[in-house]
Amino acid sequence: MKIVYSWLKDFVDINIPAEELADALTGAGLEVASIEKFRIPDGVKVAKVLATEKHHNADKLTVCKVDAGSGEPLQIVCGAPNVRPGLIVSLATEGTVIAPDFIIKKSKLRGVESFGMLCSAKELGISEDNSGIMENPESFEIGKDLSLYYPEDAVIEIEITPDRGDCLSILGVAREVSARFGLPLKDITKKPVENAQDKIDNAISVTVTDSTANPRYMGRLVRNVTIAESPEWMKNRLGAAGLRPINNIVDITNYILIQYGQPMHAFDYDTIADKKIIVKRAGTSQKFSTLDNVERDLIADDLLICDGKRPVALAGVMGGAGSEISDTTTNVFLECAFFDPVTVRKTSKRLGLSTDSSYRFERGVDPDTGLVAALETAAALMQELGGGQVASGIIDNYPVKLEKRVITVRPSKVSRVLGIPFSMDQIELSLSSLGIICARVNADTLKCTVPLFRHDITIEEDLIEEVGRLYGYDNIPPAESSVVSLSTALPMRERLTDLVRGALAHNGLNEIITNSLAHEKRRIVLTPNKTPVKLLNPLNPDMAEMRTTLAGSMLEILAYNLNRKNANNHFFELGKTFERMSDMSIVERDVLGIIIEGATWGNAWNNKAQPADFFTLKGILDTFTLHIGLDPFTYAKHNNGKPIFGSECASLVYGNIMNGLCGQVSSEVKKFFDIKSNVYYAEIDVTELLKSSIPLPKYKPLPKFPALERDFCFVMTDDISASSINGEISRISPLIENVHPFDLYRGEKLGAGKKSIAFSVKIRSAEKTLTDKDAESICTSIVDTMKTRYNAVLRT
């Protein structure tokens, strides 16, 4: 929000440097982003163009004779298209410093001498208008310094937080300045002179069918206006505030927008069918062309301003094509209303159409005195600047008056929260300066009635914040630090989560945190069979639903890094996924995602890094459960991992429940994300795992007795997994310490559908040295069990 300092002074008499004011505003919670000072350079004079002629050697240049009040006319070469005899201009004379690197000097332009420069408004910093030289009013005296008519000024840009919609205006900031410095706030509302013979009730009717969406609708009728340029003072103020002047009628509505924070809409009265205004919901899907000549698709819930035949505006957002102010407009119907912030926001966000009006309505405008002041001032300005005649009476459709919030505040709590004592008088004075009406209930209670323009004040703590803001948080002395003793024991879930993160980080993985909102296209590619949880009012159409898998956001991060030549990416994320079930309930899951791409780890001086594969991922999964003291996952081949996984996919089982999948990412998914290298991914539902208890570590002495190792090579069918064999052998005897597969073979000698896996089995006793005879009985049991359970035989 750009605040023009001179405009602010219309409301409050403050005469301090702009920097000091900026510090005060920032201290009050209105953070100042920048200060842009404006000052007409010394040497810029008011001048008059006496005569012009075309430059003999340049089609686009004009040679002018200019009276600068110094006697002899000056010859100025000018390239502006609007230069003409009789024009009152701004002349930068020789030696004028327009900018540090731009000093006006006598020069030759295509062979013709020029003794100065005729300036545009942009060159002087008055506005952004650079279409031609600045045209000054004829009342400006020739030869005078232009700075007499354009005093030094400053534009203070403030970053307004979403809860402070009341400060999106000059008046709103003036209220803060008034309260902060204890200065009276001036009422500068203008009143039009009404034409008693022309009654508005006879000229137009207004019907509001939904008073919840449009609690208050006001209107004025101004006849016989003349469409013309706005006066310089208005154009300059609008330009400084960042708005482009258009014509006097449109500029007045924009002027009121900045001055009062109240959006208004001016309709060409003669285009309003049946002279009726009807505020209603669209009711059905339909198309509507807005002022920017874009046809918009409306839904039944959108709020419209209609005449007797058609929609003429999208309430609170933008007017429609066909009823706008044009050069032929003579009669104007002025709309000034309060629209429900939620209704406006839904329409604005869904259409992707944000305007200065919707921005303010979404944050809440003043439905009380603010509407009246804005409407009356606008009508008076149209009378003053457009020569209009204002019909008597005001349309004011306000069936159910909005009630002001009444909140109690206790001085004892104010003192406790802010850390220093505050008296009842201090609190009452502070809040009253903000327009809050205070009444004493008892010795420790104030009943506060909050004005309707303060939509952000809803509870006692909000009032305490206002007291603190006005007192100045910098003025509150720091308290002695106190030590609070807290239990250092984290809940089990948080401890497990930290252990999982630590274990994966120790394996060389980087943790990432991604957005839980996702794009529909991404979900259709990754989890087409899952029903998403959709947002009712998404801020961005690309983020319109909750993610059903971590894979999408993690693969996006991977693609981002690969595009920037960052290879060997090992990531993990602990996050949430969401799914809507058939009974419309929502399931929220704790999920761990792991991505491995590129080489295992970096090259060593004596060993080249190996490319990562499925077993790299499996090793990470095994070591992380081992690290946190939980049972390892068991694996089984999984044939239904698409579309995320290709043919190399395994299910992960923990506690007899399938908790996730791991494997190589399919080529189709890689193509969608434009990834060319091999990627291995695991996604595990850790909801149950995080409910586990961490086993206490137990002391286990180092073995006293040697171990015996025996190798077995079994031939079995292809569908038997190594992990199942591993588990089966481990359960045969308590003396079996470790089982490790070390070789896999498939070939013609074994036949189709067959494979052989070699296992190394370590056998040890904690009580004695085992003999070969002891080991032989265990080996026989292993061979017999493999034959019985899997029809697996020793390879010969």
Structural description of this entry:
- The protein has 796 residues and is α+β, with helices and mostly antiparallel strands.
- It has six domains: 2-38 and 154-181, Phenylalanyl-tRNA Synthetase, Chain B, domain 1 (2-Layer Sandwich); 44-151, OB fold (Dihydrolipoamide Acetyltransferase, E2P) (Beta Barrel); 194-397, Phenylalanyl-trna Synthetase, Chain B, domain 3 (Phenylalanyl-tRNA Synthetase, Chain B, domain 3, 3-Layer(bba) Sandwich); 406-472, Phenylalanyl-tRNA Synthetase, Chain B, domain 1; 492-691, BirA Bifunctional Protein, domain 2 (2-Layer Sandwich), CATH 3.30.930.10; 708-794, Alpha-Beta Plaits, CATH 3.30.70.
- It has 18 helices and 41 strands.
- The strands form eleven sheets. The chain has a seven-stranded mixed beta sheet, sandwiched between helices. Strands 13, 15, 16, 23, 24 and 25 form a six-stranded mixed beta sheet that branches. The protein has a five-stranded antiparallel beta sheet with strand order 5-4-3-6-11, with no helix packed on it.
- Strand 35 (645-654) and strand 36 form a beta hairpin.
- The termini are far apart.
The CATH C-level name of the largest domain is: Alpha Beta
CATH homology group of the largest domain: Phenylalanyl-trna Synthetase, Chain B, domain 3
The Cα radius of gyration reads 39 Å
Number of domains in the coordinates?
6
Compute the separation of the termini in Å. 86 Å
Within the largest sheet, what's the order of strands? 29-32-33-37-36-35-34
Instruction: List the uncertain runs.
Output: none
What's the number of helices?
18
Which percent band covers the strand fraction?
Answer: 25-35%
Helix fraction by DSSP (H/I, runs of at least 4) = 10-25%
Number of strands: 41
Shape assignment: elongated
CATH fold category name of the largest domain: Phenylalanyl-tRNA Synthetase, Chain B, domain 3
Q: Which class best fits the helix and strand makeup? A: alpha+beta
- Describe the largest sheet: 7 strands, mixed
In the CATH hierarchy, the architecture of the largest domain is 3-Layer(bba) Sandwich
Average predicted local confidence, pLDDT: 91
